[in-house]
Specification:
With 66 residues, the chain is α+β, with helices and mostly antiparallel strands. Helices cover 39% and strands 27% of the residues. It has one domain: Macrophage Migration Inhibitory Factor (2-Layer Sandwich), CATH 3.30.429.
C-alpha cells in the first residue's frame, strides 16, 4: 500500500490540491502497479511564515518580490 506524504506551503486552490492528489495517485499506479484503491495521499499545508530556507521564510520571499 503506497503512502504518499506531501508537505507544501498554503495558498493553493482546492482544485489545484485535488489535481495534485489525482496525479500522485496516477503516478503510483503507473510506477509500481499498485491498485488505485490501496494508494493513500496526505497533503500537509504549512503557513508560509512557518517554512524557511536559508533563514528566509516563504512569506518574506513573497513580500520581497517586486
Amino acid at each position: 500500500m503506497p503512502f504518499i506524504d506531501v508537505t507544501l506551503a498554503e495558498g493553493r486552490s482546492p482544485e489545484q490540491l485535488r489535481t495534485l492528489i489525482t496525479k500522485l495517485t496516477d503516478a503510483a499506479v503507473e510506477a509500481v502497479g499498485a491498485p488505485r484503491e490501496s494508494i493513500r495521499v496526505v497533503l500537509r499545508e504549512v503557513p508560509p511564515t512557518h517554512w524557511a530556507a536559508g533563514d528566509v521564510t516563504i512569506a518574506e520571499r513573497r513580500a520581497a518580490r517586486p
